[in-house]
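Quick one, T. Sequence first:
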Amino acid sequence: MKEKIHPQYIETAVSCSCGNSFTTRSTRKELRVDICSACHPFFTGKLKYVDTAGRIEKFQNKFAAGSYASLAKPAPKKKKAAASSDE
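Structure tokens:
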């Protein structure tokens, strides 16, 4: 194996936004996470919505009309020839 090509594998302090912290090993000194096993709904058994930047509302607004607006077919253009022949 070649020497000095692998990063150092050191102890890492992991801190969660809920306040929980623990140590593990990684190539980084410190990690910050949004969700850990102490606050994740699967591990706690409590239902909790994790909404980052209003994603649920954005999704609901997108489908409020019933479909994508970009996929709707444009309305057919009416011919103006009939209106000009009356003159």
